[in-house]
Amino acid sequence: MQKESWNSMSIILVTLSFLFVFISQNVFSAPSSRHLCLPEQRDALLEFKNEFEIGELSRYCYSVGQPKTESWVNNNDCCSWDGVACDTKSGEVVELDLHCSRLHGMLHSNSKLFRIQSLRSLDISRNDLSGQIPSSLGNLSHLTFLHLDGNNLVGEIPSSLGNLSHLTHLILGVNRLVGEIPSSLGNLSHLTYLYLGINRLVGEIPSSFGSLNNLYYLDVGYNKLSGSFPRTLLNLTKLSVLSLSDNQFTGTLPSSLFTLPSLESLDLGNNQFNATLELGNISSSSKLKQLRLGNNNFIGSIPISISKLANLEGLDLSYLNTQGPVDLNIFSHLKSLEDLDISHLNTTTTIDLNAILSVLKRLVVLDLSGNHVSAINKISVSGPHSQSITGLLLSGCGITEFPEFLRTEHEIFYLNISNNRIKGQVPGWLWTLPELYDVDLSRNSLTGFERSTKHRLSNVPKPSMEFLLGSNNNFSGNIPSFLCMFKSLRVLDLSNNNFNGSIPRCMGNFIKRSLLVLKLGDNQLSGKMPDIFLSGRNLTSLNVAHNQLVGKLPRSLSSCSSLEVLNVEHNRINDTFPFWLESLQKLQVLALHSNEFHGSLQYHPKVASWFPQLRIIDISNNSFTGTLPSDFFMYWSAMSLEGNSSELKYIGGDYRFYQESLVLMNKGVELTYPMILTLLNAIDISGNKLQGEIPKSIGLVKNLIVLNLSSNSFSGNIPSSLANLTKLESLDLSDNKLSGQIPPALGSPHKSIQDYSFSQPAHRSDTARDTVSDPRFLVF
Ligand SMILES: *[C@@H]1O[C@H](CO)[C@@H](O)[C@H](O)[C@H]1NC(C)=O
Ligand SMILES: *[C@@H]1O[C@H](CO)[C@@H](O)[C@H](O)[C@H]1NC(C)=O
Ligand SMILES: *[C@@H]1O[C@H](CO)[C@@H](O)[C@H](O)[C@H]1NC(C)=O
Ligand SMILES: *[C@@H]1O[C@H](CO)[C@@H](O)[C@H](O)[C@H]1NC(C)=O
Ligand SMILES: *[C@@H]1O[C@H](CO)[C@@H](O)[C@H](O)[C@H]1NC(C)=O
Ligand SMILES: *[C@@H]1O[C@H](CO)[C@@H](O)[C@H](O)[C@H]1NC(C)=O
Ligand SMILES: *[C@@H]1O[C@H](CO)[C@@H](O)[C@H](O)[C@H]1NC(C)=O
Ligand SMILES: *[C@@H]1O[C@H](CO)[C@@H](O)[C@H](O)[C@H]1NC(C)=O
Ligand SMILES: *[C@@H]1O[C@H](CO)[C@@H](O)[C@H](O)[C@H]1NC(C)=O
Ligand SMILES: *[C@@H]1O[C@H](CO)[C@@H](O)[C@H](O)[C@H]1NC(C)=O
Ligand SMILES: *[C@@H]1O[C@H](CO)[C@@H](O)[C@H](O)[C@H]1NC(C)=O
Ligand SMILES: *[C@@H]1O[C@H](CO)[C@@H](O)[C@H](O)[C@H]1NC(C)=O
Fold first, then answer.
1. Any idea which ligand is nearest the CA of 416?
2. Whole-angstrom distance, CA of residue 637 vs CA of residue 698
3. What does the alpha-carbon distance between residue 7 and residue 13 come to, in Å, rounded to a whole number?
């Protein structure tokens, strides 16, 4: 399966594993009804409560309950408070369970919490704790359980936690912890469960971990750990679950790893382990159920001994660089296998889908992507396969037909057959599969959608479909209106096809509910954009570029308060500048390039809300007229304020389907930015009929990378304030009536002058160094 989808999947798994721990922990100590709690502990708890505000429910929580601390009031027994448990004999507070309690704030090193020395279990997971983990936590010397996962904790793991000698469970995952794992944790000889995954930890696993003799669960996945496989872990005979996934480990694997006596789940996926894969002398009594070695740099054939792992339920060998034939009979002994990922094996062997499905009868998820696959339609409908397929990934398998056998796979929810050569129509039965949720048909030669399912669909109360990707096919005709039945759609991508006709009004059905991303670009859609965006509150990206749309921009777009990207370039939209979008708090990209926009850019913005996040504005090749107001550049706050480079990320980078690309003129060349970096700030107003002076306020958009004012009728002097734009990589002022000097700072040697294009269009190929010394180009 694809990297990103594993990401989200294992985050879900991880979250579930927290849940498991909570359940097992709750049997620990029941609240006492006899003992009144100690007054000083009650006071400490009340003060602790007041150290936090009640904020939003954490995204890692499922149920919305009352925050537990709300039941904490001064004049009753604190042992009866929500989340508090006391020792039945002494009345001391021994357990504090405040997970999902909406606590917002910092856990300070002088928190009153640390007065409660009797604590044996502390769970403040899945709140909104910020700041560092205070090292004074190491004073709570009776702790056996410590759960701080799912917060926003930063800084290093304090080495003082190694003093908590009774600790059995230490759970610090899903935070933003940095630095190395302190070797003192190796002192925690009672530790059984250690979860540090999804942080930013670096360095190696401390060798002291070899003395964690009782450890059965160790997960440090999704960090930046490096080095070779930590051999010290081979000492841990009780280890049952080990995940080092999604780090930067390299080198070979010790073959004795696979003979660790208790190992049931091993995940080393998404690292840089290399060399050949050796499983050593594994015995058929191995308990291994999950073996994930995918997305590494292993070379060579699949080890034959893998066939001894009779208990295996999940196997990921993706990206194993076999460089030759593969013997699939190896898998025939793995009778328990439910989930098999052998995508991208770089093998010369054609994989027979029918053979796999008829041997591995319990398989529910199969990923053969990137291998050549045959026998797509040789699978007998009443066939020998006993289990229903839930996920099938056949991306880039060279298949030419739609996999018909899926017609009876009623439990399938994920289908990825992208990047093949499938021709013909998408069969109507596909839409009747009741669980289907995520379908990728993109990059094929499909020509249409078979009808006849409309009837059945309208009977489905809540259609499951959320992700439907069909870009880069050969679909033509109208966009089928039955798609509007998918009222839960979150992503619909039909770009790069030959659809014509208008955008169906019925799309308002899902726009107003759930839609996040709508991509209809590069088709032949015509007519007006329908005014269907009212209450499209979840819409983050709308792309209808490169069509033949006419009329005005629908005013209902102003209610799309989550909109980040609006791209309507290369249409025939005839409208004035959409000042009315100014209050969209999240809009980052506005691309109106090559339309029939006209009128003036003179406007007095409501300064408080003027396009607060806009970073890229491309309104080039339209018919805007008049002069720019002198304060035109004053209010683009996202482009003016000093950027925080630690926040560097791609727009939509958190979201696997939401990969934006945009074409911008940079240095005189059309450059496609595959994902838009949030630090790319660009203003392109070239190819209009703007006149007058370039406002001096241009000097205020200090973080601009690309500025293109070419092919207008700007006159007067080039403003010296341009010198303030020290980050500029591309400047084009050509084809105007400008005079004067290039501000000296722009030509100063610390910048690469080649990056500036001052040339007339006719001289695009001249190097900038020439043009600067060539008097022809000093008059713009
Ligand atoms: C708690 O620990 C810190 C250092 O980790 C220490 O300075 C402090 O004295 C300790 N406080 C108590 C109450 O033990
Ligand atoms: C607690 O841990 C710190 C840092 O590891 C150490 O300096 C200190 O001596 C320890 N205190 C106790 C009481 O073990
Ligand atoms: C705890 O760990 C540290 C670092 O690994 C070590 O120096 C120290 O001696 C250990 N303390 C105890 C009490 O084991
Ligand atoms: C392995 O464990 C033994 C005790 O079980 C211990 O003596 C030894 O130091 C450990 N080795 C490593 C590398 O930690
Ligand atoms: C494995 O990767 C390391 C680090 O990149 C490299 O030095 C080493 O040569 C590689 N080994 C093999 C067998 O490719
Ligand atoms: C493999 O292990 C088995 C017992 O588990 C043993 O009998 C056999 O000799 C071992 N083979 C090798 C090559 O070490
Ligand atoms: C795939 O295998 C061939 C040999 O069969 C090798 O030449 C090629 O480099 C391999 N491809 C990759 C991406 O490693
Ligand atoms: C389908 O698989 C291809 C290749 O692995 C991948 O690039 C694409 O993102 C997948 N589609 C979805 C929707 O996950
Ligand atoms: C796409 O369909 C058109 C007819 O609608 C046809 O002329 C063209 O060859 C098809 N292109 C591909 C790549 O199948
Ligand atoms: C859409 O937004 C609403 C709030 O406006 C929210 O409750 C809902 O969960 C969102 N739906 C999706 C699929 O994100
Ligand atoms: C835009 O629409 C107006 C009428 O609203 C019309 O007069 C004008 O010609 C149109 N512009 C273009 C370029 O078609
Ligand atoms: C450059 O920026 C500074 C600091 O914001 C500002 O005071 C100055 O006026 C700007 N210079 C020009 C020429 O705009």
1. 8
2. 12
3. 10
**Domain count across the chain:** 2
Q: Which two tokens stand for residue 478?
A: 């109208």
Q: How far is the CA of 526 from the centre of ligand 9 (A)?
A: 20
Which residue, by CA, sits nearest to atom 5 of ligand 7? 323
Q: Rounded to an integer, what distance in angstroms lies between the CA atom of residue 610 and that of residue 481?
A: 37
Q: Are strands 103-106 and 53-54 parallel, antiparallel or unpaired?
A: antiparallel
* 549 in Cβ contact with 568 (< 8 Å): yes
Task: Answer whether residue 621 is part of any domain.
Answer: yes
Q: What is the pTM of this model?
A: 0.83
Q: How far is the CA of 205 from the centre of ligand 4 (A)?
A: 15
Any domain includes 457: no
- State which residues form the domain around 126: 1-251
Is 183 near ligand 3, meaning CB less than 6 Å away? yes
Do 566 and 557 contact (CB within 8 A), yes or no? yes
> Which of 255, 258, 278, 281 to mutate for ligand 6's pocket (most ligand atoms within 8 Å of CB)?
281
Strand boundaries in 676-736, DSSP class E: 682-684, 689-692, 706-708, 713-717, 730-732
Under a CB-based contact definition with an 8 Å cutoff, are residues 255 and 232 in contact? no
Q: Which of 228, 251, 274 is the last residue of a domain?
A: 251
Last residue of a domain, one of 217, 251, 285: 251
pLDDT at 454 over 70: no
Nearest atom in ligand 12 to the alpha carbon of residue 702 is 2
Mean pLDDT of 389-397: 95
Q: Which atom of ligand 6 is nearest to the CA of 283?
A: 5
Q: Taking a C-beta distance cutoff of 8 angstroms, is the pair 655, 538 a contact?
A: no
pLDDT band at 496 (very low <50, low <70, confident <90, very high): very high
